[in-house]
Amino acid sequence: MEKIIYMDNAATSWPKPEETIKAMAEYFHSIGASPGRSGHRLSLDAGRVVLDARESVSELFGIKSLLRVVFTKNATESLNIAIAGLLKPGDHVITSGMEHNSVMRPLRVMEESGVELSIIPCSLSGEMDPEDVGRHIKKNTRAIYLTHASNVTGTIMPIAETGKIAREKGVIFCVDAAQTAGVIPIDVEEMFIDILAFTGHKALFGPQGTGGLYMAEGLEKEICPIMTGGTGSRSESEEHPDFLPDKYEAGTANVIGIAGLNAGIRFVRSVGIESIRKKESELTAILVEGLRSIPEVTLYGCGDAKKQTSVVSFNISGMDCARVAMALDEEFNIMSRPGLQCAPAAHRTIGTFSAGAVRLSLGYFLEKDDIQAVLSAVEKLVQR
Amino acid sequence: MMDTKTCLVLLFDSASEALLAEKLFKRAGISYKIIPVPRHLSSDCGVCIRVFASDKERARETLDGRVDIRDICPID
Ligand SMILES: Cc1ncc(COP(=O)(O)O)c(C=O)c1O
Q1: Of all residues in chain B, what percent are helix, strand and coil, respectively (each to 5)?
Q2: Which of A3, A16, A220, A319 could form a disulfide with A20 if both were Cys (CB 3.0 to 4.6 A apart)?
Q3: Same domain assignment for residues A107 and A253
């Protein structure tokens, strides 16, 4: 088999650690049952798998009570709960000009039902001034929704600074950690995060179909679930439970996925977020430097590996980004993602709407050789 | 007089809480057994935790502030 150079880790990380695959196989081979439903030993074991995963997540994000970790199918579901479940007509909310559609679209839907939306403009490189958020807070400001890092430029947002402002003004602060959980340390207490949405299949090395949501104490009284149904608890009642995590976990859980997610998180913690970040930063710096030295290449974002994740977007002058991505795939075995990456707002901010850009997103399993390979491929494409 | 064989069951709102209680009991070295909730105690389909009556206070302290106990009931 030809060697694939996978540079689409911001969409989904690949390859996964062997541990993820093993944990999933083990669950299927020796447990298989549904948690929280039946009380026999396999059902209890399934429940223990899920509980252990909650504990891993809570330790990773500095969450004090592991029962405050809710599992969902992805960050999108978590964000929908945090947006549609919380906001009421007449509320004002704030977000940034770098958001993914999983924040923007639910907010646009709410806007139609009378929620007022302020979008904080960001610089060309995707940076946002937290003071700008502070200036937009009004009497009826209910919440701030902010991505931890852009999935287009990798720009890291000032989370703790914004969180502090939100806390001082009594505004709920919700962070979309889809691009950062697993590569940048997150502590919900230190960063003043009231709601954290994360996905399992990116830098946490779980499978697709896993993700989660944390909310600070008391918020479960204010946030409606987007689905209700069977939870295994309070079966005598036709009223949906009002406690965590059951309130937001109607229906049979994705236990095999959660088993894989737990193994992925354990992998991250055993390597260490700092080591992962250091390696990805080094690779990102090489990629950014290399691309910058090619005159026909326009590079987006801040261009400083320390201020961004390992997401690098660029264009080659005179070439459609989709053609570049196709050539990278077909001729060089390099997997990239062209277009708008589900983030039209971010592309408007950086000036690439609607043409888009080629996105290379690195991961822990790539090496310097892979970066050299992509640089020489881009150089060849530029010659055409 | 309470003899050491007398048991109690701790009831919780959800299986997640029962399993968290189990985790905490294991760490604290408290003997326990997870059993289906006896039908006369609740119409729920879930599980509860049986402990020795003599461990009641220790069990309570272990869970204090971490898992809410819905009820504590005697059991044969
Ligand atoms: C910044 C950002 N937010 C949210 C999401 C949504 O994640 P998911 O597709 O797993 O729901 C993504 C990735 O797709 C993302 O990059």
Answers
A1: 35, 25, 40
A2: A16
A3: yes
| Ligand 1 atom 12: residue of nearest CA | A178
Of A271, A286, A312, which residue is a domain's last?
A271
Instruction: Please identify, by atom number, the ligand 1 atom nearest to the C-alpha of residue A150.
Output: 1
How close is the nearest chain B Cα to the Cα of A38, in Å?
A: 7
Pair of tokens at residue A114: 């009378």
Interface size between A and B, measured as CB pairs under 8 A: 64
For residue B3, pLDDT over 60 is answered with: no
B10: pLDDT strictly greater than 90: yes
**Residue A111 Cα, gap to closest chain B Cα (Å):** 36
pLDDT digits (tens, 9 = 90+) for A308-365: 999 999 999 999 999 999 999 999 999 999 999 999 999 999 999 999 999 999 999 9
Tokens of A236: 């005598």
Domain count, chain A: 2
Q: Which residues of A touch B70 (CB under 8 A)?
A: none
Residue ranges for chain A with pLDDT beneath 70: 1
- pLDDT range class, residue B1, cuts 50, 70, 90: very low
Contact call for residues A183 and A153 (beta carbons, < 8 A): no
Across the range B5-20, mean pLDDT stands at 93
For residue A226, give the DSSP letter.
Answer: S
Q: A144 and A256, same structural domain?
A: yes
Q: Are A68 and A196 in contact (CB under 8 A)?
A: no
CATH code of the domain covering residue B16: 3.30.70.260
Give CA A96 to chain center in angstroms. Answer: 15
The verdict on A374 and A343 lying in the same domain is yes
A254 and A284 part of one domain = no
A366: number of Cβ within 10 Å: 22
Q: What are phi and psi of A102, to 5 degrees?
A: -70, -15
Are A233 and B13 within 8 A, CB to CB? yes
Q: Which of A73, A348, A57, A322 is nearest to A201 (CA)?
A: A73
Per the structure, the complete domain to which residue A290 belongs is given by 5-15+272-383
Domain boundary among A271, A298, A322: A271
| Contact residues on chain A for B14, CB-CB shorter than 8 A | 36, 231-234, 241, 243, 245-246
How many CB atoms within 10 Å of residue A378? Answer: 24
Listed in sequence order, the DSSP H helices in A227-320 are 255-271, 273-292
One domain for residues A84 and A159? yes
